[in-house]
């Protein structure tokens, strides 16, 4: 976050191309301006009863710089909870809150609680070109307010998502439903001493829409020829880093895409990758296959030279990992490009295990250890496993290279 000596001229020109950025005022301590492609919102951070709180102060230019500083000073001079609640209500009830502010407030509190899914919520509701806030703004021809949202608008948005990605529409509905449930409960949260902003929500407009049938996972195993086609042509339909991430899933024997895109340079040492926490909650160490080392050599050198955290960073926010949805879109494009039977990246895991077992490159116990399946987690076993499995994992890495060398290189 940058600290700026804010001026009216700067406020009228500051913009962000994507996502959002927050600026701190150099004159008034705690005054913030959050800028997105669609809005500029004032807020002030203060501490009341030992807890830090963000107080919304209105939108720029409706609230100019001088007024925002006056409001911030007034909030910062508050000594009692009663005064704080009155000022919070005063600044938050001047008009119906925007839908964007509601969604951002909700995802902010998710992030504060350490919920990693706040990124998926933010993309689906605020940031993506197909997000609900963008849809609402295009529908109304102006920034949408919470009061503008009804069941018909929600259904139209979900229909537009369903036509492109039926299974994703279920998630989008759940995200939006959770936001409105939170808005209803927030106003009456008696456990919060500082109170909450009132969003004017008394009923959930998402509740009347159907949840949809839960999708069943496909049991897809790609043939060797299909695997070769994906490897050879993925760079034709996606950016270089996206293609490299997908090829790394293959060259590492079917590791989860979430594990691959989240690789940090600090996790790599002496040709080994150590995942601090995996799906089963345990640390997992693996040697890089020779093919993966070749794929990731440039990323490792770049990370060391530029102090880059992630091998596969988010294109617009370098301090975050590449979204899994980015690789999912690349898979959709390669399916269309090659006219293949549909598959998902999770199917690579099943594919690699099936081929390695069928062609007798490895035993089932060995590939289960590689994929971190079915291992005991007691302390004694953990230390014994490191000594026992180090050579076993290296053998599996060599066999993965051998299998892929037969038809990819």
UniProtKB/TrEMBL annotation:
Residues of the Tyr recombinase domain: 217-401
Keyword Oxidoreductase: no
Polar residues bias: start-end ranges: 199-210
Keyword hit for DNA-binding: yes
Keywords: DNA integration, DNA recombination, DNA-binding
Region (Disordered): 199-218
Superkingdom of origin organism: Bacteria
InterPro entries found in the cross-reference section: DNA_brk_join_enz, Integrase-like_cat_sf, Integrase_catalytic, Integrase_DNA-bd_sf, Integrase_DNA_bind_dom, Integrase_recombinase_N, Phage_Integrase
Pfam family, one: Phage_integrase
Family designation: Belongs to the 'phage' integrase family.
Protein name as catalogued: Tyrosine-type recombinase/integrase
Organism: Hyphococcus aureus
Lineage: Bacteria, Pseudomonadati, Pseudomonadota, Alphaproteobacteria, Parvularculales
């Amino acid at each position: 976050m940058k600290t700026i000596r804010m001026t009216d001229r700067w406020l009228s020109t500051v913009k962000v191309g994507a996502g959002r950025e927050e600026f701190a005022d150099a004159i008034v301590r705690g005054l913030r301006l959050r800028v997105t492609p669609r809005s500029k919102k004032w807020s002030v951070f203060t501490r009341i009863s030992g807890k830090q709180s963000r107080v919304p102060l209105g939108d720029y230019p409706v609230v100019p710089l001088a007024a925002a500083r006056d409001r911030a000073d007034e909030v910062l001079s508050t000594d009692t909870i009663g005064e704080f609640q009155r000022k919070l209500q005063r600044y938050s009830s001047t008009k119906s809150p925007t839908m964007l502010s509601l969604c951002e407030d909700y995802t902010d509190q998710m992030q504060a609680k350490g919920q990693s899914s706040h990124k998926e919520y933010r993309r689906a509701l605020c940031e993506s070109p197909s997000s609900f806030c963008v849809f609402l703004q295009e529908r109304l021809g102006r920034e949408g307010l919470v009061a503008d949202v009804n069941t018909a608008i929600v259904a139209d948005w979900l229909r537009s998502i369903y036509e492109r990605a039926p299974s994703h529409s279920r998630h989008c509905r759940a995200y939006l439903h959770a936001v409105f449930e939170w808005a209803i409960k927030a106003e009456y949260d008696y456990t919060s001493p500082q109170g909450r902003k009132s969003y004017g929500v008394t009923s959930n407009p998402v509740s009347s829409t159907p949840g949809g049938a839960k999708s069943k996972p496909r049991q897809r195993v790609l043939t060797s020829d299909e695997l070769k086609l994906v490897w050879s042509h993925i760079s034709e339909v996606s950016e270089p880093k996206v293609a490299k991430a997908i090829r790394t899933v293959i060259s590492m024997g079917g590791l989860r895409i979430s594990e691959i895109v989240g690789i940090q340079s600090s996790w790599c040492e002496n040709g080994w990758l150590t995942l601090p926490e995996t799906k089963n909650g345990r640390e997992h160490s693996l040697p890089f296959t020779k093919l993966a080392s070749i794929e990731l050599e440039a990323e490792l050198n770049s990370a060391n030279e530029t102090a880059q955290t992630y091998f596969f960073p988010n294109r617009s926010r370098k301090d975050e990992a590449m979204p899994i949805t980015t690789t999912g879109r690349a898979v959709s494009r390669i399916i269309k490009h090659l006219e293949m039977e549909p598959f998902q990246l999770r199917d690579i895991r099943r594919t690699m295990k099936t081929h390695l077992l069928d062609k007798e490159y490895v035993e089932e116990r060995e590939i289960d250890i590689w994929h971190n399946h079915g291992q005991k987690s007691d302390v004694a076993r953990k230390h014994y496993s490191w000594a026992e499995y180090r050579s076993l994992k290296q053998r599996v890495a060599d066999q993965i290279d051998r299998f892929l060398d037969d038809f990819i290189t």
